[in-house]
Amino acid sequence: DQQVKQNSPSLSVQEGRISILNCDYTNSMFDYFLWYKKYPAEGPTFLISISSIKDKNEDGRFTVFLNKSAKHLSLHIVPSQPGDSAVYFCAASSRDTDKLIFGTGTRLQVFP
Amino acid sequence: EAQVTQNPRYLITVTGKKLTVTCSQNMNHEYMSWYRQDPGLGLRQIYYSMNVEVTDKGDVPEGYKVSRKEKRNFPLILESPSPNQTSLYFCASSRPGLMNTEAFFGQGTRLTVV
Question: What is the mean pLDDT of chain B?
Answer without folding.
Answer: 93
